[in-house]
Structure formats: C-alpha cells, structure tokens
Amino acid sequence: MEQGLVHIYCGDGKGKTTCAFGLALRCAGTGARVRIAQFLKSGDSGEVTAMQQFDNVELLRAKQGTKFTFQMNAEEKVQAARDHTQLLRQAFADTKHLRMLVLDEIMAACTTGMVDTDELVSLIQARPPELEVVLTGRNPPQALLDLADYITEMKKIRHPYDKGITARRGIER
User: Fold this and answer.
1) Chain segment 30-43, per-residue pLDDT in tens
2) Beta strands 57-61 and 34-38: pairing type?
3) Average model confidence (pLDDT) for the chain?
4) Are 139 and 10 in contact (CB under 8 A)?
5) Which residues, including other chains, have CB under 8 Å from residue 116's CB and lie 6 or more apart?
6) Which of 78, 117, 129, 149 is most open to solvent, judged by the fewest CB atoms within 10 Å of its CB?
7) How far is Cα 34 from Cα 98, in angstroms, rounded to an integer?
8) Residue 65 has what pLDDT?
9) Are 111 and 139 contacting, i.e. CB atoms less than 8 angstroms apart?
C-alpha cells in the first residue's frame, strides 16, 4: 500500500468539511475503509446522512447537544474536553485496517482546548504508515502545519452569512 500523507484544509472560507468528505467519498468509493471523526459538531447534516450509507465508512461524532465553547461554564468545558479527548483517542484506535482518517474541525478542538495538540501530533506520528490523515478547521497550530504534506487554505471573499443568510440544508449543512 502507498504511504499515507497528512492533509490540512483550513481558513475562514466555506469548503473545508466539504473537501474532506469529498476525499473520504473518493477513498470509500475504491472499497477502502474510512473513519471520520467530527469534533465540536453534533447536529444533522447532508454529508453525515450520505456517509452513513457506506458500509466501509465509520462515523464518530461529538456528543449530541454540545454547546459552543463560549457558551459553556467551567465545568461544562472540562467535561467537553474529556469527551473530545476520548473521541480523539477512539479515532486513532485500531487504525491498521483503515486507509483514511478524517478529523473534521480538529483545529477548533485544539484552539479551544478540547483536545491537546501535543497528543494529536503524537497520534499522527505513531499512525500506521499507509494511513492518510485529513484535518480540517480554522487556525491550525504550527505543530500541525509542520507535519502536513498538503496545506490548503480556503479564503472567504464573500459569504451569505454576512447578509444574515444562515446555513441551508443540503448546501452548507
């Protein structure tokens, strides 16, 4: 099997998760096994529903009802960090059979303190050599940028949210 590389899709523009799920779809379409872990997201979305149709795609998600970190009190933040650290460890558990691991919104999980960047770096470095790892989110820590083979930044030029148009089902969620 080929060497697995590390991808980062970051920036303030739309398309990070879409890109990662597109790669996962491409990989799954070849019959390879894919695992997707979504951090800081718990609502339903079209991409989650679509991926659940594939027997060779495993989807791990943050606990339902997770608030934005700025809405949490100190106790809730501690519990959320425990939950997200457990999700991170579950994502990297028993990866020998996987071809791709997607960590959606992992950058936000790092920058908000929900997962430890050093632990994430160690897990990436210890992965099986053929495992492709895809990381998404805004503001990637330098330690992750240093590990990456691909870095693509989505830059927002214009977005409907700026005019008060919220996420639409099937388009942004």
Assistant:
1) 999 999 999 988 67
2) parallel
3) 92
4) yes
5) 85, 110
6) 129
7) 6
8) 59
9) yes
Check residue 169 and give its pLDDT.
82
The reported pTM is 0.92
What sign results for the dihedral spanned by CA atoms 73, 78, 84, 86?
A: negative
* 3 state SS of 130: coil
Amino acid present at 84: H
Element (H, E) at 35: strand 34-38
Tracing tokens 């820590």 back to the chain, one arrives at 141
Residue for token pair 């950058």: 107
Residue with tokens 């989505």: 154
**CA 5, chain centre distance (Å):** 15
Give yes or no for a contact between 9 and 105, defined as CB atoms under 8 angstroms apart.
no
- pLDDT tens for each residue of 55-90: 999 999 987 655 677 788 888 888 888 999 999 999
User: What number is the average pLDDT over the span 129-141?
Assistant: 97
Residue given tokens 């609502």 in the structure block: 43
Which candidate, 100, 95, 121, places its Cα nearest to that of 36? 100
- Element housing 133 (H / E): strand 132-136
Statement: residue 153 has pLDDT above 70: yes
d(CA 135, CA 144): 9
Look-up: residue for tokens 């495993």? 58
